[in-house]
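Person: Please work through this fold.
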Amino acid sequence: MRVEVWSDIVCPWCYLGKRRLEQALAGFAHGDRVDVAWRSFELEPDAPTAPMSLTESLVTRYGRTHEDALERHRQMTELAAEAGLAFRLDLAMLGNTFAAHRLVHAAAQDGLKDEMNERLLQAYFTEGRAISDLETLVELAGEVGVDPEQARTAFTEERFAEAVRADEREAAEIGIRGVPFFVLNRRYAVSGAQPADLLLQALQQTWDETVPAASG
């Protein structure tokens, strides 16, 4: 069974949704037979490349007060902790994610797409790394086993840019307006970082209705 997940690297709900999906899969009898495919989605395609403090961005770009921004951080950090994630949103550096998405597709050549996606999320949400900075991206790629020179090709070869655009075109065709967005065997869709038990129910229903009984 295939689960496709459209998400963005700077989306806190996407990281939370990823963990909840993993929790659901851990409790799913056929979890070892589920292929999870991470698909690209940019919440802000026109976001600047130069990294900016997430807190500062919420204040200057989105009109929140400093106090509101900090309260948002607190609430999101508490939710993340319930899923075992250690958010440090006070350190987060917001920036354009197009290059990072290209890198994830490049890492897929070595079978490291999942690892690259996780490393980028951790770098942004926990370590305060600037995931819009190309040298930072190359360093992170090396940490998961992607050759640095191969990583650099992600930013120069059009095929990786096209892979991101193709994911985003399909998202538009499906009607995806927000992420995370889960598509299960092209039969059902789940929008948002839903609780693990709801995702488990969706997995079971999809399996029962789309996987032939003879396959187990």
Observations:
- The CA atoms of residues 102 and 156 lie 10 Å apart.
